[in-house]
């Protein structure tokens, strides 16, 4: 018998699949204009996908990370930038559910609210009567152009104590947007820079970053909800892998769609599909996608299971969550690279989708928190009995 969660998952995945045609139709426009097309944002809104990590009392689905993964795979098959933007919104939306209930009431009063954010503490704050005043800037703010709020990280400097990183929720109208997103990959995400100049943030919309890293909530309403009983970094990792697997599957879709009409120039193969080399390439790419899915499934299963149990995370488990995310990125990129190499010179045309998948998955692999080598080294370091060299666990 299907449970309510299974039914909800199936409905949301079906909504994502039905949204894919609109995303695919406008993917080139999004690339050219360096932002997600408004019609793509609208179809994702209508599908309820921006509510997946919102609290239930505000109309949210409170979806588990396995559901996020399956939805994002379907979006990523159509448009990596749209899928990445949706997954980035999910993380700060979940983080907003850790804030005091009064702050949540303000933020979630906007239907289908979209919250962008970053974990980089590239700003400073000073105490003020009833809150803090923030000055600084943040780069790579995916989805800022369509967001209602930004979750910022800043360093609070007090005269009588050590500097402390804090998170805060700020309306987008309080920030200045710098249109500086000129990139080779994930061009449609509109990951611009935002700036705060003397922005006042009331105390209710401020939380210590360390508490959020440990999954500590200031919300009474959400205290008993399982999705809020998890540390930030494993949650962020599990929320991010779906678009990457989706990009790899999208590249496979694009390759197989063109295959019947292609030959191998300057050889006797009138059909590329007859060549043994093609068989080996397709199989190799497919197996790497399967391996990426294994790591994604293990990661989401652990995050959801430990959240349901309210169990503590060990240091090794936290490091492995980062390693699983890195492995997904590495394997997906390897699969796309194989398919892209097998696609021939015609695939460099902008109207051939596989070149976009290749550039997008490359961009994801360069992300500081998702980089396969960085995450593998961290996992190996912990396996060898050393202390981690990062707080981002």
Q: Could you write a compact summary of the structure shown?
A:
With 393 residues, the protein is α+β, with helices and mostly antiparallel strands. It is 50% helix and 13% strand.
List key phrases describing it.
single chain, 393 residues, alpha+beta, Butyryl-Coa Dehydrogenase, subunit A, domain 1, Butyryl-CoA Dehydrogenase, subunit A, domain 2, Butyryl-CoA Dehydrogenase, subunit A, domain 3, eight-stranded mixed beta sheet, 50% helix, 13% strand
Characterize the structure shown.
- The protein is of the alpha+beta class and 393 residues long.
- It folds into three domains: 4-112, Acyl-CoA dehydrogenase/oxidase, N-terminal domain (Butyryl-Coa Dehydrogenase, subunit A, domain 1), CATH 1.10.540.10; 115-208, Butyryl-CoA Dehydrogenase, subunit A, domain 2, CATH 2.40.110.10; 230-383, Butyryl-CoA Dehydrogenase, subunit A, domain 3 (Up-down Bundle), CATH 1.20.140.
- It has helices at 4-33, 38-46, 65-78, 80-96, 101-107, 209-213, 232-258, 276-309, 315-341, 353-365, 372-383, and strands at residues 115-117, 123-128, 131-141, 149-156, 164-171, 176-178, 192-202, 206-208.
- Strands 1, 2, 3, 4, 5, 6, 7 and 8 form an eight-stranded mixed sheet that branches.
- A hairpin with a 7-residue loop joins strand 4 and strand 5.
- It starts with a helix and ends in a 10-residue tail after the last helix.
- Residues 1-7 have low confidence and may be disordered.
Alpha-carbon Rg, integer? 21 Å
The helix/strand order is: HHHHHEEEEEEEEHHHHHH
Number of strands: 8
> Any idea of the CATH topology of the largest domain?
Butyryl-CoA Dehydrogenase, subunit A, domain 3
How far is the N terminus from the C terminus? Answer: 37 Å
